[in-house]
Amino acid sequence: MADRDISQAVIRRLPRYYRYLGELVDDEIERISSGELSDKMNVTASQIRQDLNNFGGFGQQGYGYNVKYLYNEIGKILGLDNIHNIVIVGAGKLGMAIANFPSFNNRGFITKALFDINKDVIGSNVHGAPVLHIDALVKFINENDIDIAVLTVPRQGADEVTSLLLKSNIKAIWNFTNKDLVVPENVSVENVHLLDSLMQLSYTITSR
Amino acid sequence: MADRDISQAVIRRLPRYYRYLGELVDDEIERISSGELSDKMNVTASQIRQDLNNFGGFGQQGYGYNVKYLYNEIGKILGLDNIHNIVIVGAGKLGMAIANFPSFNNRGFITKALFDINKDVIGSNVHGAPVLHIDALVKFINENDIDIAVLTVPRQGADEVTSLLLKSNIKAIWNFTNKDLVVPENVSVENVHLLDSLMQLSYTITSR
DNA sequence: TAGATTGTTAATCGATTAACAATC
DNA sequence: TAGATTGTTAATCGATTAACAATC
User: Where exactly are the structural domains of chain A?
Assistant: First the structure.
């Protein structure tokens, strides 16, 4: 892997390509041209070809793209050929919901444990994963080959948990708190700012 | 409200400005310059001024911006001075989690009911909102002044529920299914594609 | 008044789209 | 071979940044 300087805009579109190609695989479609895919996805054929050619030439002139091959290649680019072990910090309603998401497990994102400070939930079990006290977090990450920490604590706890995570070997934080995290650049952060998203929706309603 | 053709990039940034200004209000900071805000938010001062001036001149030369005033104005732009009534379609773990999110209620997004087809949850009560059968959905939306439908059903149910929603007066759909919805242009859609987001994180880990 | 900082125009940069030669 | 469609270069479009005159 590892072409650097692929633009963020391209990376954001990759999972969407992967999704549509997955549907085509399910439908047992064998080949597709950028033009046909363009119609399905509502993006220009030009953009599709440009995007893919950031990672290499996956097509063939006069033929198009082999669906299954392209699907697998994009999967590899996205790192989906590897298992990613996950911990969820904050075993509230949202954390529990994420631990139970079947589509994550199906793609190789495996929740190994949840962490909380609430004694009522510590010791219980979510979809096979134990809920542990947050004191055990750093050790657990380092000893269980954990890639990704999901941050589903209340906003006020975000910074404290983050500085704890930074003491471990964590590679990435999936941040559901409505706060921007400050991390060194060898740690990736992907934000899911739900309230921001809802406000955008409110804007579009309001501005009609 | 209602300047048309504000770019999507600007709209995406508005909630973030709102968030930072909210913190400044809490800290009882009275005024701030685009330069200071730029340092805090890690965006250019130029961008801040450009963004705000899409909606009017909120600042004053030589002084900067009054924090509280700007906060309120952005709130109005985002439509947060109005109550938005919400229904959640799909009363699974994720739907329940969203119904319980305190920050939504605090901003005037009020969950009025949840809908499902599972008899085990129908009749129950989530944070004061009833769980009803999906057959009652259209009528409920039209009679209860519902703006926003949250879609937290499994992927396979997405299209069916969407076509049901389009029979109602719904204004916006907050889509948590991993599917792109097809709606007429008087209905707004905001996607939260969690699996896509997780895949992006996987990409950044993989491409180091 | 002098200093600070906005609002806004102009310059730059990057991303998207169009075009087309290469080639299967 | 002729037709189709890619990979890629060039043109366009839009968004970001820089600069500065206006003005509080």
Answer: 8-77, 84-196
User: Measured between CB atoms, does A5 come within 8 Å of chain B?
Assistant: no
User: Which homologous superfamily is B84-196 in?
Assistant: NAD(P)-binding Rossmann-like Domain (3.40.50.720)
- What is the average pLDDT score of chain A? 96
User: Within 7 Å: CB of A150 and strand D?
Assistant: no
B93–A196 C-beta distance less than 8 A = no
Which nucleotide is the nearest neighbour of A33, by CA and C1'? Answer: D5
Cα angle for residues B21, B25, B27 (degrees, 5° grid): 115
* pLDDT band at residue A4 under the 50/70/90 scheme: low
Instruction: Tell me what the mean pLDDT of segment B142-164 comes to.
Output: 97
Q: Check the CA dihedral B116-B120-B123-B125 and report its sign.
A: negative
* Candidate from A3, A107, A200 with C-beta closest to B11: A200
Residues A85, A147 contacting (CB under 8 angstroms)? yes
pTM to 2 decimal places = 0.96
| Confidence at A3, pLDDT banded by 50, 70, 90 | very low
The number of helices, as runs of H, and strands, as runs of E, in chain B is 9, 10
Check residues 91 to 130 of chain B and report those whose beta carbon is under 7 Å from nucleic acid strand D.
Answer: none
Closest Cβ–Cβ partner in B2, B19, B208 for A207: B2
Residue A207 structure tokens: 């501005």
Q: What percent of chain A is modeled with pLDDT above 70?
A: 98
For residue A110, give the DSSP letter.
E
Q: What is the pLDDT of residues A181-205, one digit of tens each?
A: 999 999 999 999 999 999 999 999 9
- C-alpha distance from A189 to closest chain B C-alpha (Å): 7
Q: Which fold has domain B8-77?
A: Arc Repressor Mutant, subunit A (1.10.10)
The conformation of residue A145, written as its DSSP 8-state character, comes to T
From the C1' of D5, which residue's alpha carbon is nearest?
Answer: A62
